Structures are given as structure tokens and as C-alpha cells.
Amino acid sequence: MKLCIFFGTFNPIHNAHIKMAEFVLKNFGFEKIIFIPAYKPPHKDYDLEMSYHRLNMVKLATEYNKNFEVSDIEFQRDTKSYTYLTILELYKKYNPNGKISMIIGTDALKKIETWYETDKLKNLVDFIVFIRENEHVNLDWLKEKGYNFQTADMPFEDISSTKIREKGELKNVPPKVKEYIEKNGLYKN
User: What CATH homologous superfamily does 3-158 map to?
Assistant: First the structure.
């Protein structure tokens, strides 16, 4: 199986996340995209109750597509969510054909050298990078350090989980996610 994963805090998952996954599925020939919500993100504050809400919202947002799967793999370990450790587990679980690919934004890729076991991680995954509109990014220095990636040529969607949380604007989340947020009283300021 040709496998691609999409890590994130997904706080909340929004329409741009879904469009990115659909774009990769259509244009890169994957059989499956696995969404992996972070349980305890190492670089962010987290609330354990909210972690489960985030997992539930990702399940609701992706259930319409049989090629999308949601994994709670990071919830099964009661530790911080380190990508490297999760990737090792995914290789054991799925036995993919070739390297696992990973959807990532330029903001995260620029910080990849700060990630846990980054030198080992770069040998295990190929990255599919989404560049923000009007962002001029030179990532050649990462290629020189052994990170393998290609860019996704999808028109940029200016949607931000931060803006959704701060402003409570739910027009950019899938309908079932909007219902879940409202039902559970999430992101109220």
C-alpha cells in the first residue's frame, strides 16, 4: 500500500485540511490518507479533554471519504506525540510499499530540525509540502541536509484554526464539525 499521513493538532480541523488531503489523494496516487491528531503535542499547550474533542472532530470531518482513515495511534501511548515514534509504529502496522509520505506545511517544515530524532525521521518519510500563498520559500537547504520532499501545487486556502478558535467563525469547518463544536460549546470566548 502507498501510504500518506497527515499529522496535526486539528484544533479544529477545517475545510483547507480536507482540501489538502483530497488534493494529495487525487494528484499523488495514494490509496489512503491517514489523519493523525496529536494527543499531547510536544510544541504546544494541550488539554486532554480537548484532545479527545479534536479526535472526534477529525473523525466527523473525514467519514465521507473511504480513502481517509483516522488513527488514534498517538492516544494509545500516554506520552508526548513525537512524529518519529509514530512513524516507526506505522511502518509495523501497515507495512507500506516504499516510504511513508507526510503532508506538511512550510511553517512546520522550516522547524523540522527541532523535531525529536529528526535525523532518523528524514530517512523514514518523504514530505509533501504545502506553501502558503505569496510565501517565497527556499527549502534547498533542507534538501542538502537529506530531507526529501516535493511541493503540492494547490491554490492556497487562507483558513486558520487559530482564527476559528479566536473568532468563533465556523463557516470554514465541515458541517458535522460545526454541529459538534456548537453542541459541545467549544471555542467560546
Answer: HUPs (3.40.50.620)
Q: Cα–Cα distance between 175 and 77 in angstroms, integer?
A: 30
Give the bridge partners for 32, in sequence order.
Answer: 3
Question: Distance of alpha carbon 157 from its chain centroid, rounded?
Answer: 15
Report H helices in the chain: 15-28, 48-62, 83-94, 106-110, 118-121, 140-144, 161-167, 175-184
- Sequence length of the chain is 189
Question: For the whole model, what pTM was predicted?
Answer: 0.92
pLDDT digits (tens, 9 = 90+) for 71-127: 999 998 877 778 999 999 999 999 898 999 999 988 888 889 999 999 999 999 999
**How does pLDDT run across 138-165, given as a tens digit for each residue?**
788 888 999 999 999 888 788 888 888 8
CB 150 within 8 A of CB 128: yes
Give the position of cell 488513527. Answer: 71
CB-count burial class (<10 Å; 0-12, 13-18, 19+) for 150? exposed
Cα separation, 38 vs 108, whole angstroms = 14
- The residue with cell 518519510 is 125
The residue ranges of every structural domain in the chain are 3-158
